[in-house]
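Example 3.2
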Amino acid sequence: WGIGMGVSKDRVIRMRAIGQHLADSQYDIVCLQEVWCPEDYQTICGLTRDVLPYNHFFDHGKIGSGTCVLSKAPILDIAFHEFSLNGYPHMVFHGDWFAGKGIGVCNIDYKGLNINVFVSHLHAEYNRANDMYVG
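Structure, written as tokens:
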């Protein structure tokens, strides 16, 4: 529901609403999925800059990972580990091959504690009875 190029209806309105909700709330750390478009990430960051001034967008794969982290506390370091299972390029309508499926980690200085916060975007399930991606 966060895909650009006219695929997702009301995407821009939805992302603005998410950003406004986060700006009006009191979260310390937020992990988001389905943020595919850099402009949506910038919109959310712009709306939340006063309450969540630290952020990172995990831009991996052909169209990104769809994940980001916003934080009230400083992000000291980041890393991303791409999963070996990312779909197949010939399965165009599955779309997973185009995305950077994996796990992102932000090392955050949270109230004097050094913590790791993980965000992940897993492979989609298309056919539970006959899943070609099961290892």
